[in-house]
Amino acid sequence: MISSKLKESVIRAEYIEQVALNSLLEFYRITNREGRDYLEVEIFETMIHREIMKAIRRAEDELEEIRKLPEGNLSFRDLIESLKARSDIEKTAEILYQEQSSAAPTPFLRGLFELIAQNEKLHSDTLNYALTARNSIAELSKGSSCLIEGSSGSNFLRILELITKDLKRKMFMVKTREDLPSVSDNEILIIPSYFIDRDNAKNRRDAVALATRLAVEVSEKVEDGSMVVFYYANELCPSHEELVYDFWDSLINTLRRNFKDLYVVLVCTTMLDGSGCVRVYPLVDYVVDVQDVYGLMYRVKKVSP
Amino acid sequence: MKVLNLTFFSLPFVTAFIITYFTYTSLWTAWFDFLLWTSVTLGFFQFITTFIQTKGALNYSLPYAVKVSKFKVAGFVTAYNENPEIVKKTLLSVKAALGNRGTVFLLDDSTKPEIIRELSEFCKSNGIVYFHRTERRGFKAGAINDAIKALGDEYDLVAIFDADQRPTKNFFDIVMPFFEDPRVAFVQVPQYYEKTKSLIGQGARYQQEPFLRRIMRGRDLRSAFSLGSGTVYRISALKEVGMLEENTVTEDVATSVKIHEKGYISKYVDLPLIWYGTPPTEVSAYITQQSRWALGGFQLIGTLLNSDLDFRTFMDYVSGVFYWLEVGPFTLVQIAAPITFMFGIYFLKLSPMIYVSAYVPYFVFSFYYFYYLMRGTEYGLKGFILHQALEYIEFIGVTASFFAWVLKRKVPFKVTAKGRSTRSMRPLIYHVIILTLLVASMVKGILLIRGASPLQLWSIGINLFWASWHYFFLITGVYISIASMSEEEKSYLSFLS
Q: How confident is the model at residue B1 (pLDDT cuts 50, 70, 90)?
């Protein structure tokens, strides 16, 4: 569920909270009544911070154990229906946390209960949306290309797994960084020589030459009838915004010329200002707008005519 | 000794001999005439081979995309009494780069007990295999060979890093895919020096530019040779050639020759994948380094003449040997030529007009070609001047290495590194003597102008040009050596004067 990097920082945070707590407790022992009153809130909240970090770590470990359980036969559709039948549990929980939020003595606790209540509501909303969303992913197999777009940290791999399952194709993953997680046995790594040339691409001719050469090299490594994923697509194209369309146009067309049947997936992160790979929309059949993969919050838009 | 090898190798000498036959003035000075012509023919042959090599360099390119490979790698870090903190950082970098693709080994030949203890404990607590030898047979090459023998058949590749050279995180991701081609026996990644204020250090960086950006690129997939660190070998290829060569100071080049003889190729990946640290920043360290490399080059001559290399590969290697001959003993000959002329020893019988009409176009063209070749790099005019000046500084050390090789001495030019002012001044004393002789010859030449015939004027002019040329680069070399000295060394210099 969480990356090893995040797990590491959670452990570090837990340690830091404990250190902070020890320091506060030392002062608590030596200070007078007024000082103790002041410190108590801080000590209490620091304890909660520490426990939250601990809880994240334990939940992750518990999940690891649960994953070892053998798979059952209940389909995704039946699962959603079964969960819907029990959706009143989520609703009850939501109401409970809202009540706790109003009764909470400190702003921190109020915010915390409010957040949990919102999360319970999200669970219930996504439950209603899950089947529609899942079915929309199946729609992607009608086309020959798609763009998966979302903010950094969205779990694109989960969507890719779903697409691979529906398309039943061998996946070739073109990675722009070696530290991106592995989901395929067939990985192609873009090496710094590419990025040197990408940064030197100043005009349309350079962008087309760059894209064509990259497409030719990728073509040598993928198979007909497979699915090729460019992860992350926005790191591949030249930085000049006006070259993005020409770059992807040349790259996708060269790939199309080299194969009879190839499914092209571009994974693109949206920037803080909301911009992303909008210029690529005319070149793909579908855009998957990812908001919260684990909550199955994504939207598939058909963009090609 | 292969006839073809010997024929090609001796061509500059034979050519020089023929020209000498037509230009010598007396039997007493014919040997000097021959040496001077040899310096010209060596330069010319080197220019031709560089021209051929670098034609390929201009088309050099690396792939954009590589298929991720799965080889099992042994990452070797070699150390000998190095600062343990530096070694630890390198070990952690190799471990981070290697990930779960293999094991990191520290091949420690240290003799100091406190270093041995500290490093072995560090290795134990960080999952690094610690290898220690009590006898240093074969030095670094011996340590690597011993470790490979101990590995058995568990690993496919072995990566070698010096104790102060840290690979980047993506080092293996980029290097390993090239081994998918079974003809590739090793991959070499260049050593990028970091920028430094020292002019010697800057010169050393610039000096590497033509070699790393052009020569090695031109030798890619043919005769690119191992630089000793940042090399990843296919273990089966190493075993096939009887492991690393142990009886030379530059085991990397000698082993590369053995590998190329077997028909394997080598890949040169010109990307900054290794943090190399600072170049030599003061004159004695720089000369020691260059003398060692030069000695390795001279030691290679016998191996090359007896080798089964194909002609292009042989030519590439011989070009390297010619370079050291030219930078070393033949620079001395070139400097001596105008001095002897100005002092009335006329060893050459050649019309100055013929010399000018033949040499000037070659000189201009070779300059233009070098400029054309280095376009798009950081080199520039400053790089050229610092590079040339350093070659004039190193030539005495390289010449000493040449004679050490001829006389079969092991250590030709031992200069103590930083902090020992009296010793580190020594190399410059020779340069100061030569500079004095050059100034005297220039003064003499200017005095000769009065009363000279037009033909003599041409001769004096040519020799004045060369004397000034040598003087300029030599004085620049001396200046940058002094400017790069530590404050302690500079104070010693002012004390002397």
A: low
A270 contacts A234 by C-beta, under 8 angstroms:
no
What residues of B are in the A interface, CB distance below 8 Å?
A: 61-68, 169-170, 173-174, 177, 271-272
B10 shares its domain with B148: no
- Residue A148: phi and psi, rounded to 5, are -100, 120
CA neighbor of A63 nearest in space, from A127, A7, A134: A7
Q: Determine the pLDDT at residue A271.
A: 74
> Which of these three, B233, B268, B285, is where a domain ends?
B285
- Order of strands across the sheet with B157-162? B129-132, B102-108, B73-79, B157-162, B231-234, B184-188, B265-268
* Residue B213 belongs to domain spanning: 73-285
- Residue B187 DSSP SS3: strand
A11-27: b or e for each residue (b if 16 or more CB lie within 10 Å)? eebbeebbeebeebeee
A213 lies in the same domain as A245: yes
Domain total of chain B: 2
User: Helices (DSSP H) in B176-310: which residue ranges?
Assistant: 199-209, 216-218, 235-240, 251-261, 283-305
pTM recorded for the entire structure: 0.83
Predicted pLDDT at B275? 81
Q: Is the Cβ–Cβ distance between B252 and B225 less than 8 Å?
A: yes
CA distance A249 to chain B (A): 18
Least Cα distance to B74 among B203, B233, B275 occurs for B233
The verdict on A75 touching B (C-beta cutoff 8 Å) is no
Nearest-Cα residue of chain A relative to residue B70? A185
Express each pLDDT in A254-280 by its tens digit. 999 999 999 999 999 887 665 668 889
Nearest CA in chain B to A212: B64
Distance CA B497, CA B490 (A): 11
* Residue B192 DSSP symbol: B
| Residue B420 reports pLDDT greater than 50 | no
- ipTM for the complex? 0.82
In this predicted structure, what is the pLDDT of residue B152? Answer: 86
Main-chain dihedrals φ then ψ at residue B168, nearest 5 degrees: -75, 165
Domain that holds residue A102: 71-142
Task: Please provide the average confidence, as pLDDT, over all residues in chain A.
Answer: 89
pLDDT for position B416? 37
3-state secondary structure string across B284-329: HHHHHHHHHHHHHHHHHHHHHHCCCCCHHHHHHHHHHHHHHHHHCH
Q: B433: exposed, middle or buried (C-beta count within 10 Å: 0-12, 13-18, 19+)?
A: exposed
